[in-house]
Design goal:
The structure is a single chain. It contains eleven helices and twelve strands. By secondary structure, it is α/β, with parallel strands linked by helices. It has one domain: Protocatechuate 4,5-dioxygenase, Chain B. Strands 2, 3, 4, 7, 8, 9, 10, 11 and 12 form a nine-stranded mixed beta sheet that branches. The radius of gyration is 17 Å and the shape is globular.
Length: about 280
């Protein structure tokens, strides 16, 4: 415990609000979601997952379909890619702290991986990674308790993305692949789907987004929003994850589950869509 106390830890703004603050209750809740999720049988090595990021009561049951596949797997380094819900006026943002904390314990940030990633981005496209303190980004932190539960201990490479343009997203993906390639690494892309449409329209938009996700073409996926055919607040995170995963030899994305907030709240007039998927390297 002594070492943990000396770490500069980002305090959690979500515990007790977006998920339970009590570690026993949180563990039990996540285990229930994992037990209830029956993902399809997959073949190949897991390179990454795509998971939603609302409060656990809303999107936890969907996220569990992706996390259930990670049980029994070993990953030392996990990069979580998320959108920036607050404007930091930077293409790429990470934490200025040394670790994240959730009720399930401390998650150390891999400072060496973060520095190496920044170095590559600087030399490739002249961009740095802005470090912020006490950020309130829920879409990144919400993934951590699930990761802690299924993986135990791991090092974190957290990146919050503030751009949509393909050049910067591809550069991030390719730079990430370089950092991750010699490690037991996992990519997590954090995204919800359409927001606040009636259920039938949400299903139509989300189905198109998930279809483009499975097509595993980052440009085609990003184009959906421009064409008004589908929406995802973490589309940049998914596209960057696709570019990184492709570079690491992944060749397939399999959608595991889909639901909306209406399935939890009973309000189908305005729903948020949630999808879970796995990124695979198949022989």
């Amino acid at each position: 415990m002594g070492m943990e106390k000396q770490l500069d830890v980002r305090p959690s703004p979500l515990a007790g609000r977006w998920y339970p603050a009590n570690p026993q209750v949180l563990t039990q809740r996540i285990d229930e979601y994992l037990a209830a999720a029956i993902p399809p049988t997959i073949e190949g090595e897991i390179v990454g997952i795509i998971a939603p990021h609302a409060g656990h009561q809303y999107s936890g049951p969907v996220a569990a379909y992706a996390y259930a596949l990670l049980q029994g797997q070993v990953f030392d380094l996990v990069t979580v890619l998320s959108p920036q819900h607050r404007p930091y006026f930077a293409a790429y943002v990470s934490s200025a702290h040394q670790a994240y904390e959730t009720p399930l314990g401390i998650v150390p940030i891999d400072q060496a991986a973060l520095s190496a990633l920044e170095k590559r981005l600087q030399s490739e496209i002249g961009e740095t990674i802005k470090r912020v303190r006490a950020d309130e980004e829920h879409s990144l932190e919400i993934q951590l308790p699930f990761l802690q539960r299924v993986l135990g201990s791991f090092r974190l490479l957290p990146i919050m993305i503030g751009i949509d343009e393909p050049r910067g997203l591809k550069a991030l993906g390719l730079a990430l692949a370089e950092i991750l390639k010699d490690q037991q690494a996992l990519i997590v892309a954090s995204t919800d789907l359409s927001h606040f449409y009636p259920q039938p329209l949400a299903e139509k938009l989300d189905k198109e987004m998930l279809r483009r996700m499975e097509a595993f073409d980052p440009l085609y996926f990003l184009q959906a929003e421009i064409e008004g055919k589908g929406f995802a607040c973490g589309r940049a995170a998914v596209a960057a994850a696709m570019w990184a995963a492709k570079e690491l030899g992944a060749n397939r994305i399999c959608v595991l589950h889909y639901a909306t907030s209406g399935d939890v709240t009973g309000n189908y007039r305005e729903v948020v869509g949630y999808g879970a998927a796995v990124i695979l390297r198949t022989s």
